[in-house]
Amino acid sequence: MALLSPQLQRFLLTKLHHRNNNNHINNSKTSLLTRRARTQCCSAIAIDPPSSSLTGVSGIRWGSTSLKGARDEMEDDVVVRSDGLEGFSFAAVFDGHAGFSSVKFLRDELYKECVAALQGGFLLRGKDFVAIRKALQEAFEKADKKLLEWLEINGEEDESGSTATVMLLGKDTLFISHIGDSCVVLSRFGKAEMLTDAHRPYGSSKVSLQEIRRIREAGGWIVNGRICGDIAVSRAFGDMRFKTKKNEMLKKGVKEGRWSEKFCSRIQFNGDLVVASPDVFQVSIGSDAEFLLLASDGLWDYIDSSDVVSFVRNQLRQHGDVQLASEALARAALDRRSQDNISIVIADLGQTDWQDLPLQEQNLIYELGQAFATIGIVSLGIWMSSQLSL
């Protein structure tokens, strides 16, 4: 079921709440108290939301939140920084699995590797995409190599891993470096533009088919959409058992009865089954760009991109607070029965006057009419079905 449109949300909120939400903008203390109260009412836990006053680049306002869903552990993390890359801000979402240790290592190390590879932002300012893509690929691969060495030293069969999607946002240009199944969406005049593709070993998309072929060529196999029946993402940091410990993974599988020795004797690995090589994109930020939204799959598996953009636009129309908007969106995903952890970063690009933004052409009366018409059609269908069954 789609989220209510901005008009209907606004109508219902006006009827239910006779309060002026503008004090969220003018009174920071009230805004903070409201955020705390809402977090306490939520069944999830907020993790280090940054202040929406963080700017860094051209008046861009940031908001983010991480909520623990129905999972036993919180394995997500969010990083937003405006230092080290002169003229650009760094934002990343990490979605961990099989433990939090890989995320804990990466939240600082990946940023350091990106800063070094991009020469403190010098390459970004030059906008030589070939050089930038090469630098970001090297940064991700170096970070993964360091993580694997760190996991090996820690021992105790740490099988943790993490996806990562990084945004490098400048005044008029965005660079994305991406592995895994988090996604970035850009709102252009209210239209959702998906900027990344999920790296998963199942599905019929071009990217999924490429991932499936790569895994099989490397000697791996896929069971129920999972590599070796285990992991449902095909690009990630860490995950030693699919990189440096593949043979050990086979032996462990035999002991656990997951496959036979005869089956293992036919396996020949020709490469890593899970890789940390990122897709790198460059996106122009025009005058029609409103905001960017980066989130883990705990959001996208339950709300589609068009509904997400409509929801955030309506939030910003109401109060203009990008931090409150990110928190409200995470709660909306939980209300949709999201079972995963949810991490969200929103960058309001500072090009939209949210208070004066006109409502979409579709009016409330028309929308309500459509709703009643839909109810009538469904009721007619039920009646006809009952008649035919007589």
From TrEMBL:
E.C. designation(s): 3.1.3.16
Keyword Magnesium part of the UniProt annotation: yes
The subcellular location is: Membrane
Name the PROSITE patterns for this protein. Answer: PPM_1, PPM_2
Cofactor(s) required, per the database record: Mn(2+); Mg(2+)
Highest rank taxon of the organism = Eukaryota
Q: Give UniProt keywords alphabetically.
A: Hydrolase, Magnesium, Manganese, Membrane, Metal-binding, Protein phosphatase, Transmembrane, Transmembrane helix
Q: Which GO terms describe its molecular function?
A: metal ion binding; protein serine/threonine phosphatase activity
This protein's GO CC annotations? membrane
One protein family per Pfam: PP2C
* Record domain PPM-type phosphatase: where: 61-349
Gene3D superfamilies, per database record: PPM-type phosphatase domain (3.60.40.10)
Listed SUPFAM superfamilies: PP2C-like
| Membrane topology per record | Single-pass membrane protein
Query: What family is reported?
Result: Belongs to the PP2C family.
Question: What name does UniProt use for this protein?
Answer: protein-serine/threonine phosphatase
Organism (species): Tripterygium wilfordii (Thunder God vine)
